[in-house]
Amino acid sequence: MTDPNLNHLCPGCFVDKGSQNPCPHCGYDEATPRGPLVLPHRSLLNGQFLIGRVLGKPGGFGITYLAWDQQLHTRVAIKEYLPRDLAGRGVDQSTAAAHSGEDAELFRFGLEQFLQEARTLAQLDHPNIVRVRQFFEANGTAYLVMDYYEGVSFAEYLEQYGGRLTEATATQLLLPILDGLRAVHAKGFLHRDVKPQNIYLAKTDTGGVRPILLDFGAARQAMGERSRSLSVVVSAGYAPFEQYHRKGKQGPWTDVYAAAAVLYRAVTGETPAEANERVAEDDLKPASVFGVSPTLSAALSAALALAPEARPQSVPAFQAQLRGEPRSAPASRDSLTATDPALAGTSSTPSAESPRSAKAAPHPSRGPRWWLIPILGLPLLALLGVGIWWSEQSRIVSPPDNASTAEPVARRALPPAPPAPPVAPAAPQGYLQVSISGAAAEVTVDGRRVGRAGPGEPLNLGQGLAVGEVEVGVSAAGYHAQQRRLRIRENAWTQVQFHLAAEPSPRLAFEPELVAIEGGCFQMGSPASEAERDDDERQHRVCVEDFAIGRYEVTQAQWEAVMGSNPSGFAGCANCPVEQVSWNDVQDYLDKLNARTGNRYRLPTEAEWEYAARAGTTTPFWSGGCINTEQANYNGEYDYDDCGAKTGVYRQKKTLPVGSLQANPWGLYDVAGNVYEWTCSVYDSGYGGAEQRCARKNDAGSRALRGGSWDDKPLRVRSANRNRTTAVTRDDSIGFRLAQDSL
Fold it and tell me: Which regions are flagged for Pro residues bias (predicted)?
């Protein structure tokens, strides 16, 4: 079914084009023939998604479209299961119809595998793994709704720059994807189809890029086995020997081979020969023949071994070899225990993992956020974690934790690759990565400005630094400058992390820093499937107008500057949030602040608060399916769903200075934890509309509180969690942040 009422939206970009064609915004010509298998423009799926142009080329197993989410008012990518050798379109141009009865059986089998793959992806929460928003069945087939990314594939990037990258560039480009694979393996799953076409360099709003691993190959592999046609499901040059055989034992070593093949292709310019051809005569050239360093060449040779047991048996083992660590004897298959799903051998068809068994596997480590990497001064991203990363203490730093050839990205040229450092520098050299949370800042080395870094966008000094001690400094207006002495080690990466704590400026002494929020519609509340949800979180669609909201919670210093006293239970910390203030107290504060500034500050409505706190996310926390105490101040002695036995620490039972931890995607700090925040809305357990209005001072009813506090379990800092109390209640867990109508 198509929606003629939306003909003004361009299916190429979903911007209002009126009646013009081609689109004046993106140039898309919707009169261009689309082919018999492609859904018509503006087909409406699941009552929510409007189909647009095809992304990339339709593949043998399916088609990926750009689509418009009418509920969230955002673009998404939708992958449709449609193996063209088995099915076509019915007379309605929408319904998938198998070519024959025999094809129908295999089509249905593949459909189940496609849905299983969707369930697999839905369990994964990692910045370098494609995020699945939802999946559903319609038109006799199934659809996978994913985030939409702009950028280019790694294959395109290689082609743009001559088919080969310098070792320094390649090893930095191929970092976080290995960490994504670790997260995949930790859940007991395999990717099975790592190759340059399935790695995307996604552009970010800040000018950087993020590596995204797409298109898991389990569904195609299973269909190939069922149809006895494995040759059509392996990726030549990147598939290991065991994928050519139905009884081949697959495991993490399978993905290790493919990841190594991608890196080999990047540094040598040649794709490895097909594994089944190497059996008769293995003429794979060592990477050192192409000028690659002995350490990297040896690691690649080991990972590209034909015999699975001769390879590194896990991603961490491969990463250790890339660092040049001595190789231990390969583990016996019998010694790989079933209690560790990341190491246990798997059949070629993944089995569903029950929620209970999933809890046994620890949640992947969420270490430093370095997945947005301006590589060697180039805003490029990483794909297969192969770096040599060291901490100041010289311990290894652990990174944070295709049915179709269609591409859920818009093709866009990236800047040229940077020059590589000399293969054999005249003097010993090392490399430095500087990560900063809290704010973007200038970075200096021994007093010399070398660049800029910020949250999620570390500075990588890959041109080489002299070996020895250096002083690294970071500074930003309104924040405490910091310095640290480090030792740069030869041919190794040294990593250092800073957190910038805000200094109250004279203006901020009584005025908040506001973030402009563009209005929109979202699903307020939580889905019935969300773990540990409460009955008052009914999910419903809410729209908000443009508004502005405080970047930080109101501090003790800001309160005292207006009111002349500090009521806080945790007094003595000027930049900590004010607490022990009732809703009525806050109204008095607002009256005085507005009289003093001439502004019209207020509290946010409950709907505005959740819209801003979610920052476009639909997961339990703004950080994803899990949260930890590096991201929010709460009682981390407790667990949440599949996030591990405990999710962090309990910080001496107190608040933290505002902005001490990570901001959400829209730049708001402490929307999860630290203190509960008053909203201006009366609490209504049934969401009858009060969540979209501000109460007056004398209105009856409890007031809605949001965000959780320093004293709460992680379930209470979920974006949808609600609390309430009377307008006269004061508590050391309750504070607030300000809002106002649009700036």
Answer: 415-425
**156 and 136 together in one domain:** no
Q: Tokens 């500034």 belong to which residue? A: 597
Q: Cα separation of 606 and 681, whole Å?
A: 6
Which of 398, 158, 381, 388 has its CA nearest to residue 262?
158
Q: Are residues 103 and 202 in the same domain?
A: no
- Distance separating alpha carbons of residues 344 and 188, to the nearest angstrom: 8
Note whether residue 135 is domain-resident.
yes
Classify the phi-psi angles of 151: left when phi > 0, otherwise alpha if psi is within -120 to 50, otherwise beta.
left
At 455, which CATH number? 2.60.40
287 and 210 within one domain:
yes
State the maximum Cα–Cα separation within the chain, in Å, rounded to a whole number.
86
Q: Where are the alpha helices (DSSP H) in 235-354?
A: 252-268, 275-278, 294-303, 315-322
Tens of pLDDT along 552-605? 999 999 999 999 999 999 988 888 999 999 999 999 999 999 998 889 999 999
Same domain, 75 and 167: no
The reply to whether 546 falls in a domain is yes
For residue 593, the domain's CATH number is 3.90.1580.10
Distance CA 144, CA 67 (A): 11
Residue ending a domain, choose from 116, 147, 178: 147
Task: Locate the DSSP E strands across 29-85.
Answer: 44-45, 49-54, 62-69, 74-81
- If phi > 0 it is left, if psi is from -120 to 50 it is alpha, else beta; for residue 734 that is beta
CATH number at residue 309: 1.10.510.10
Question: How many structural domains comprise the chain?
Answer: 4
- Where among 96, 127, 147 does a domain terminate? 147
- CB-CB contact of 419 with 206 (8 Å): no
In sign, the C-alpha dihedral spanning 107, 108, 111, 113 is negative
Beta strand segments in 116-217, E: 132-138, 141-147, 149-153, 199-203, 209-213
Quick one: pLDDT at residue 78?
A: 96
185 pLDDT higher than 60: yes
Give the mean pLDDT of 205-217.
74
Residue by residue, DSSP assigns 537-595 as: ---EEEEE--EEEESSPPBHHHHHHHHSS---TT-S-TTSBP-S--HHHHHHHHHHHHH
* Residue 486 confidence (pLDDT): 84
- For residue 202, how many other CB atoms are within 10 A of its CB? 21
Phi first, then psi: what are they for 348, rounded to 5°? -75, -10
Tell whether 331 is covered by a domain: no
Asked if 88 contacts 94 with a C-beta cutoff of 8 angstroms, the reply is: no
State whether 570 and 689 are in the same domain.
yes
Residue 186 lies in a domain: yes
How far is 93 from 37, CA to CA, in rounded Å?
8
Specify whether 132 is located in the same domain as 270: no
pLDDT for the residue numbered 13: 93
| Residue 523: Cβ within 10 Å count | 16
Residue with tokens 């190429």: 12
Q: How many helices (H) and strands (E) does the chain have?
A: 13, 31
Q: Based on the domain organization, do 137 and 160 belong to the same domain?
A: no
Tokens of 524: 């307020």
Residues shown for the chain: 743
β-bridge mates for residue 151, sequence order = 202, 411
241 and 248 in contact (C-beta within 8 Å)?
yes
Domain with 466, as residue range(s), is 431-499
301 and 197: one domain?
Answer: yes
Side-chain half-sphere CA neighbours of 401 within 13 A: 21
- Give residues with Cβ within 8 angstroms of 594, minimum separation 6: 600, 601
Location of structure tokens 């819209």: 611
- CATH number where 117 lies: 3.30.200.20
Rg (CA), the chain: 27
